[in-house]
Design goal:
Helices cover about 50% and strands about 5% of the residues. It has 13 helices and 3 strands. A 3-stranded antiparallel β-sheet has the order 1-2-3. The model is unreliable at about 145-160 (pLDDT under 50).
Amino acid sequence: MPSLGHLPVRMITHGAVDRAVHAWIADEASRSTVKNSLAILVRVLEQARRDGIVELNRGRVTGWQREFQHAEDELDNPRLLALPDWDSLQQLGAALVARSHGRFAGWADIVEFTACTAARIGETSGVCRADINRQAWIWNVRRQTTPAPGGVVDKGTKGKRARVVPIIPEIRPLVDRRLNEVSDDPMARLFTGPRGGRVTTAVLRDATHWDEVVTALGYDYLRRHDLRHTGLTWMADAGVPVHVLRKIAGHGSLTTTQRYLHPDHRAITDAGEALSAYLNAG
């Protein structure tokens, strides 16, 4: 998983490796992908240590297996991780802004946009002016190929997850405001940090004291990726057909999408699949 290759070996820190691993897990990389990627990194850094380039092998991270297991548990019943309603989402955004340095209002925009589009934080951070169609009010989620400062290509999404997502009326005013605030450059980013930098899950967590805020609100289970679970759960409860929901989510498997359906809806869907299997067998 290409994540750290643009950094000189001396600049690879425990924090950089930890953020990379968490990003792989959030992107639903397999356990073997994480394990093998870390194995390569450890071997490279071990040779660097022997050559005297670095003092410690900072690729030896621990605890990622627990994080991976937690991610797998989420997929069993992601509905349990969703925020209950629109008011709770706005309350979360306001609380994050209040705890951030300088009360940066952009944190609320990022949280609301991410949840209402069922996106990942990294995808929200990669939204450019050219990606927004204000006539149809849709967001074209794509793989970003334009190098950022320093020559690094930011990964907004994997190719198989390129998709079209609706922008609902509730968040159109904030999108309009963001479009008016950025330059006319088609590649200008709509959602950035207070200094104009790219936002990651770790940046959002640290800048807003996320863990403290969600605990105070009674959502101590809530992580940044759960904003995506929230959006998909709301869409499922709103009656979005499962095949459409799958396209919006960018899921490779329909089984993954079905986990967001209300149990009653899922039972009906399963009944239809059982009938289809019976007819095909006949």
